[in-house]
Amino acid sequence: MAASGIKVISPWRLFRFVRASQVFRIPGVQLHTTGALMGASVEDFNNAKAQLGTLKKDPGNHVKLKIYALFKQATQGPCNTPKPGMLDFVNKAKWDAWKSLESVSQEEARQQYVDLIKSLVSAEGPAVATPPPESAQAFQSLLVTTEDGITTIRFNRPEKKNAITLDMYKELIDALHHAGKDDSVITVMTGSGDFYCSGNDLNNFTGIPQGGIEKMAKDSGELLKHYVKAYIDFPKPLIAVVNGPALGVSVTVLGLFDVVYATESATFHTPFSQLGQSPEGCSSYTFPKIMGNAKASEMLLFNKKVTATEACNLGLVTEVFPDGSFQSEVWTRLKAYAKLPPKSLALSKQLIRSKEKEKLHAVNDAEVERLIERWLSDECMQAIMNFFQAKPKL
Ligand SMILES: CCCCC/C=C/CC(=O)SCCNC(=O)CCNC(=O)[C@H](O)C(C)(C)COP(=O)(O)OP(=O)(O)OC[C@H]1O[C@@H](n2cnc3c(N)ncnc32)[C@H](O)[C@@H]1OP(=O)(O)O
């Protein structure tokens, strides 16, 4: 169907509705037939063909078949190709549609084609200027784009190694909610620059706001809970493209992703005890489940930094790619994933997740409760002061 600029999908769905009737009456679309005798010019016909590509709504297979048949009839005259076999549903449906127009002249078919496209365009209402992408409008510290069925959420503070500020947590929650509802098939998280993300921005705990330090800890706890909840409840496949070192909360939530791809030089580090803190992102549950208690304890209690290959052997990372070909190999693969049937993907993910959603929410609540205490502890305050005074690298 390349010539008519349309694609017919799902042989089974097509078979079901085309089998019943070859009469094209299209509900919801009023045909403004200007009369076959007047005849549309070749220019009108070409314009209509171009307009077809601008339709925002999928007109459905029934209409697409009609468009196809009119296009063939207008450009080639009556159907003159052998009838496809009964089991070749798509080609049989197309052939039947074209064949059913054999008594229509080419000129008349051209006019009907033009009228049909006009009707579809006017059914969509007046053209509205496309707003700039939400990323450009709304987000300060993220780059969010949707292309080829993939919504990409990119941490975008490379000068601070993509550390997550309080505002950035809010932006990430918004971006995830939006991605969960948009028409993309998969969602990808990645980082700008040489880091994936250096975790919580330690400045989040340095200013003492009105209401005192207890209120700050409580508010941060609420924010963290919502942040992690956005991952637990995320309805579509969520894929991390770990382009460099990852720290703290950016590592712990990886246990809530469906797939994690990492470049060879990436590292994974959760230095909680070093910072006087405790695990979050449901890692106190997901890490032992993924890698076993002993290995999880090395990471979550004893601050062990693991390489991408080690993280892959532990089951936290799905696959590791050479640094040189990481981006091209991963994005080629993601583009192919985004062509899979979206509903099937989302429903399969939800089946997997639904078994333990309740558990994950309970773990999130418990982790946040513990962290609120930790943030008020001398151990934690001392660790943060040390970072800003001596700037020891983790
Ligand atoms: C709502 C609240 C929820 C809280 C949830 C809790 C989560 C827990 C965690 O996430 S724990 C992990 C916290 N992260 C860290 O402790 C990392 C601290 N940073 C470092 O150790 C190093 O900066 C580094 C190893 C990430 C990178 O070292 P490198 O030498 O390559 O680069 P610089 O140190 O020069 O970094 C460039 C500038 O970026 C600033 N920066 C980097 N990470 C953070 C961070 N997490 N918080 C604050 N600032 C960070 C760094 O200070 C440099 O800034 P400067 O140019 O102004 O000096």
In the CATH hierarchy, the third-tier topology of the largest domain is known as 2-enoyl-CoA Hydratase, Chain A, domain 1
Mean residue pLDDT:
86
CATH class of the largest domain: Alpha Beta
Largest beta-sheet characterization: 6 strands, mixed
* Terminal CA distance: 57 Å
Strand neighbour order, sheet with most strands:
1-2-3-4-6-9
Bound molecules: ligand L24GHEU4
Using the CA coordinates, give the radius of gyration: 28 Å
Shape: elongated
Beta-strand content estimate:
5-15%
Count of helices?
16
SS-based class: alpha/beta
**Number of domains as seen in the coordinates:** 2
CATH architecture of the largest domain: Alpha-Beta Complex
- Can you write the helix and strand succession as a string? HHHHHHEEHEHEEHEEHHEHEHHHH
CATH superfamily of the largest domain, please?
Answer: 2-enoyl-CoA Hydratase, Chain A, domain 1
Unreliable parts:
1-37, 128-137
Helix share bin: 40-55%
By DSSP, the count of extended strands is 9
Organism: Electrophorus electricus
Keywords: Isomerase, Peroxisome
Protein name: Delta(3)-Delta(2)-enoyl-CoA isomerase
GO molecular function: delta(3)-delta(2)-enoyl-CoA isomerase activity; fatty-acyl-CoA binding
State the main characteristics:
394 residues, alpha/beta, Acyl-CoA Binding Protein, 2-enoyl-CoA Hydratase, Chain A, domain 1, 2 domains, six-stranded mixed β-sheet, three-stranded mixed β-sheet, 9 strands, 49% helix, 10% strand, disordered N terminus, binds ligand L24GHEU4
